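Cast an eye over this sequence plus tokens and walk me through the fold:

***
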Amino acid sequence: MDPATASDDNIKEVRQHIKELEKQEEKIIDLYQIGTIDIDLVKKKSEAIQKEKKKLEKVLSETKKKTPQSVSRDEAIELLGSFDEIIQSGSLQEQRELLRSLIEDIVVFPDHIEIHWTFSVK
């Protein structure tokens, strides 16, 4: 399984878990409304669910950041065409986005540096 597929599966799994937590929270509220459980238990369960949802949303956010985004050769050429303008007069955020869209990662070795592009150079 390639990393992109694994990340897509992980993202779907996390989103599904978040939906399940939301359903659990709705059921707890329903139980409170019909008088089956008291407010203290609702608060306790709701806080636990919210805490878990925040953890999952953080995982989701980090997974999306780590997911390599490949760029087609034509998109790379288009991005490189605007490279000088963005580097010279773009905002810091625009410069970062440009570099992130072109470079997957940079590996530094004692005797050389490797740049892994988000597009095929061949």
In short: Residues 1-6 have pLDDT under 50 and may be disordered. Helices lie at 3-33, 39-66, 73-81, 83-89, 92-102. The CA atoms of residues 4 and 67 lie 6 Å apart.
